[in-house]
Amino acid sequence: MTTANCLGIWMDHQNANLMEFTADPIRTKTIDSKFTHEAKEQTLAKGESLMHNKEQHEQADYYKQLGATIRNYNEVLLFGPTDAKVELLNTLKADHRFANIKIKIKETDKMTDNQQHAFVREYFSGHQLLSPGT
User: Fold this and answer.
1) Scanning 17, 62, 79, 133, which has the fewest C-beta atoms within 10 Å of its C-beta?
2) In the sheet where 6-11 sits, what is the strand order?
3) pLDDT for res 2
């Protein structure tokens, strides 16, 4: 039996911490949204509709970057304190390339890096032991 190719992603609308579940110590790769609070204030000064348009484009790019990474995995856990994980899941569900990837969502609070690593390790360790066939 091969080990599932699993990825945990703690995310909000600003950044995502990607953690591959391996036997080695988990390493975190971060992807940041280009639409920062500062960018929001700058575009808001030019007009609210421009700000919303820019925000939608930047958010779409952020989700596209995450999707490009997610395509390399069999199973993905999205977790974090905001609705960003749900928005990402809805984006991925609309794309047939993600149909065979098992994606789950868990609501969590803000977490330290160590807490995120422990959460990913616990989720995938327990999950694989309980249901190796699914």
Assistant:
1) 133
2) 28-32, 15-20, 6-11, 75-80, 102-107
3) 39
Cβ atoms within 10 Å, residue 86: 12
Rounded to whole angstroms, how far apart are CA atoms 61 and 63? 5
What does the pLDDT average to over 90-97?
94
Q: Which residue has the tokens 């990913």?
A: 120
**121 burial type by CB count under 10 A (0-12 exposed, 13-18 middle, 19+ buried):** middle
Domains of the chain: 6-130 (3.30.420.60)
Contact of 85 with 58, CB cutoff 8 Å: no
- In whole angstroms, what is the distance from residue 55 CA to residue 133 CA? 40
Give the E-state strand segments of the chain in sequence order: 6-11, 15-20, 28-32, 75-80, 102-107
